[in-house]
Design goal:
By secondary structure, this protein is of the alpha/beta class. The protein has helices at residues 2-9, 33-50, 63-81, 83-90, 127-130, 139-151, 157-164, 173-183, 185-191, 204-207, 257-271, 283-296, 315-332, 339-353, 373-377, 395-404; strands at residues 106-108, 114-116, 133-135, 168-170, 215-224, 234-241, 247-252, 276-279, 302-305.
């Protein structure tokens, strides 16, 4: 009876081995690759200092400790992502089918890291370049690419891929590099496109067929100087057609309302009275519009002003002012001209700008000559004479010949 009671009190002890799936290091808690290296380096130093037979290390982490931390960091990342592949390589077995490492021909080095074997064994390259470390495309790869992106002064995707491939073979590297460049605040700030509202349709006056300078925009440019009057400033009053984009340049004595009005009257005498003038809200143009109404009365042109403090509304004449200034700067350089020479140069610049092509200039030999503003003004490009087939040709034949050249 005692023996039976003894057996009933006996208990069996069972040992159960539990494999933990928790990672050794939580990479997702770290915001940068250097911080991850420092944390792993301090952990390794603590482990080393706990050993009785080892020398106690102190002070900041050394370069050797950081290199050991990097090896340990990549070692743990590979064990988490490629556990089956590492076990297969340790047992000299083929890699599992469907593994992302099948095409890379990996092997385990002396430190237990996965590297690419490759075919560059005899190349005159460094060991890291011939056999880069395989890095899984996880959070540790994201930290590494972010660090390289900042180290290379916010380089682009191509530069990141080419530089990282010298030491690491990161799975899905290009996708991670694109993500890093897309999420970088500095890159987004510098490469962001400016906000722009949808452009409104052009005014009706600018898109309807009309003779040259029917709708005209005007603006001043300058000042200019001449040797005749060294202390006097001269200005260019530019007129541009809103339809055919031709220009007309007048040399004005000053920015006064009187000189502006005289330049406008010289323009209308040679080009005809426009139906509408466009300009900015300069006081000179406000006064000239009133004088023009007094001079022409009800037959005068309509004067329209753009929105105040919005110079981009006049971009269709500001662009041509820039072309005039560039032509004068390249032609004159540091030369000083007389007033007559300066006025002649302006007229020549006007002819050159009116000879610019308005249509596409092709490279094929059978393509027709491009259309220019001069075709609408004089029937041909400026600077080239009209070739007549016969000296005895009638006036009608000459007009037909000119029109055929357009």
């Amino acid at each position: 009876m005692r023996e039976g009671l003894k057996k009933s009190n006996e208990t069996d002890t069972v040992c159960v081995a539990v494999e933990s799936d928790l990672p050794l290091f939580e990479f997702s808690r770290w915001s940068s690759f250097p911080k991850a290296l420092n944390i792993v380096g301090w952990v390794l130093r603590f482990v080393g200092n706990c050993k009785a037979s080892s020398l106690k290390a102190g002070g900041p982490l050394t370069y050797g400790e950081l290199m050991k931390a990097k090896v340990k960091l990549l070692y743990c990342a590979q064990r988490e992502a490629f556990a089956k592949e590492i076990n297969a390589l340790a047992l000299s077995q083929p890699l599992p089918k469907g593994s992302p490492l099948v095409k890379l021909d990996p092997y385990l080095d002396e430190e237990g890291l996965l590297r690419i074997k490759g075919r560059l064994e005899n190349a005159e390259l460094s060991f890291e370049c011939k056999h880069p470390i395989i890095v899984p495309g996880t959070y540790i790869a994201l930290l590494l690419v972010r660090f390289q992106h900042g180290l290379l002064k916010h380089a682009g995707v191509a530069v990141l891929v080419s530089t990282l491939r010298n030491n690491y073979w990161i799975i899905r590297l290009r996708q991670i590099a694109k993500r890093v460049c897309r999420e970088c605040v500095a890159c987004r700030r510098c490469e962001a496109k400016a906000c722009s509202q949808p452009v409104a349709p052009l005014p009706e006056l600018r898109v309807k067929s009309a003779p040259p300078f029917t709708v005209t925009g005007l603006d001043f440019a300058g000042p200019l100087f001449c040797v005749d009057f060294p202390s006097k400033k001269l200005y260019i009053l530019l007129f541009t057609c809103a339809v055919v984009r031709a220009v007309h340049l007048e040399l004005a004595e000053s920015l006064s309302v009187t000189d502006c009005n005289l330049a406008i009257r010289r323009f209308t005498a040679r080009r005809g009275v426009p139906s509408a003038f466009y300009s900015d809200n300069a006081k000179t143009f406000l006064g000239a519009s009133n004088l023009l109404k007094q001079h022409y009365g009800p037959m005068g042109p309509q004067w329209k002003f753009i929105v105040p403090n919005a110079p981009w509304w006049g971009g269709w004449w500001e662009h041509l002012i820039r072309s005039v200034k560039v032509a004068l700067r390249k032609t004159l350089g540091t030369k000083t001209l007389s007033r007559s020479e300066l006025e002649t140069t302006l007229h020549e610049v006007e002819a050159c700008i009116n000879s610019r092509p308005l249509t596409f200039v092709g490279e094929e030999p059978d393509v027709a000559n491009p259309l220019t503003p001069s075709h609408f003004l004089i029937g041909r490009s400026a600077g080239f004479p009209v070739e007549l087939a016969d000296d005895s040709a009638s006036g009608y034949e000459i007009v037909v010949e000119v029109l055929m050249m357009i």
